[in-house]
Amino acid sequence: MTPSAIALPRPASIGRTAVICILLKPAFVTTALACADEPLDLAESRSESALDYKTDLDWEWHQRLEGVQIWYDEDNERLTFRMVNQRDEWSVYAYLDPGYELTAAIIFHTPCKPEQYIEVPADDSHKFTREISCLQDGSGYLHTGQWQSKTTRGEFNFVWEDNLDGHAFQINFANWDFSPLVAEKDKARERPPLDTSY
Length: 198
What we know:
The protein is mainly beta. The chain has helices at 40-45, 49-52, 179-190; strands at residues 4-9, 17-25, 28-34, 60-63, 68-73, 78-85, 90-96, 101-108, 117-120, 130-134, 141-148, 159-164, 167-172. A hairpin with a 2-residue loop joins strand 12 and strand 13 (167-172).
């Protein structure tokens, strides 16, 4: 008998269908394997464990299908987004500054020597030298980027990708819903400036 595919519903909060392949022999099942309909890292980025990955903060789902989490940073008074990739061991963080510029940081969770940095030379894809630097506690390397939106609606239709000394990543910001961050910046612009004349 040939392998059969049985579609099983995912939990309602995800709302898609997974495909499980089961090899059948007469009268009993001998082998079961998952035939993923999406990459493993995407499925892992949507799991409940992704909310706790390398953090002690209370992240919540903003766009679970895209793997995007949200958290309000009280110290800096701003919303921050996050996406994690547990298989490749990185976390990316993103927020909008008052000028609607997207600032993003990626942390590669690879132990390193504090204050060490690695310079990555320019290449065909990148006109400038890039750098990753070790965090103060030695828990990983940090790389940042910043982009100006063409509008004040926070439209970032691009993919941020690179390979920094073997630390590869690809983040498609076109799929992220930045509307809560844009609304936050719009509201901040409506506030009157603080009186500092005293």
